[in-house]
Amino acid sequence: MRCSRVREKLDAYVTDDLPPKVRDGVAKHLQTCEDCQAALERLRRLGSVLRESQAPGVPEGLAGRIMASARRQSSGQSSPMARPRWRISFSIPMGVAAAAMLVAGIVMGVLMGRGAYAPVSGSVANRAPAADPVAVYNLDYLGEAPNGSLAQAYLALVSDKDALGR
Predict the structure, then answer these.
(1) Cβ distance 26 to 1 under 8 Å?
(2) Whole-angstrom Cα distance, residue 91 to residue 93?
(3) Backbone region of residue 16 per phi and psi (left: phi > 0; alpha: psi in -120 to 50; beta: other values)
(4) CA-angle at 24, arms to 34 and 19, nearest 5°
């Protein structure tokens, strides 16, 4: 058994909650591994410290405060200090910055896309032949892809040729 597996099972080994076969494997490993023996000893010392220490007392009126809070939440009321969740994560400067970035993105998109779409006028027969997308967009590495490949499908979509390359 590996050390990582043994250390995962040490707590169950100490409390005797392992099946006999697994317990025997852990015991066998512990006979030869000093690091795991030290980990077992630390776990046993921690257990004894926890057993000897006393749990802190419960503050007066804790149960009543919990029940009152639960009643408020179930009735839809919230405490006076509570704010809407979306307001917690955004401060005013962050909101202004987000709005400015949104406006800047829209303006840049409009400016960059201004000449990207031009409606086709006239008949298709009078139209000049489209440029080869391999040459225009430096797609040389796609030109030698085998027929039926994803690269060929992409080239067929961006060019005026049909799927068979005609």
Answers:
(1) yes
(2) 6
(3) left
(4) 125
User: Strand, helix or coil at 4?
Assistant: helix
What are 121's two structure tokens? 């006028």
3-class SS of residue 150:
helix
Residue 105, number of CB atoms within 10 A of its CB:
10
Distance CA 125, CA 39 (A): 82
Structure tokens at 84: 């809407």
Mean pLDDT, the chain, integer = 78
Stretch 21-29: mean pLDDT: 91
Q: What is the pLDDT of residues 93-133, one digit of tens each?
A: 888 999 999 999 999 988 887 766 666 555 555 555 556 66
Helices (H), the chain: 3-14, 20-32, 34-52, 62-74, 85-89, 92-113, 133-136, 140-143, 150-158
Contact 152, 145 (CB under 8 A): yes
Q: How far apart are CA 1 and CA 50, in angstroms?
A: 29
CB-facing half-sphere around the CA of 126: CA atoms within 13 A: 4
- Residue 44 and residue 10 in contact, taking contact as beta carbons nearer than 8 Å: no
Summarised one tens digit per residue, pLDDT across range 37-47 is 999 999 999 88
pTM exceeding the 0.85 threshold for the entire prediction: no
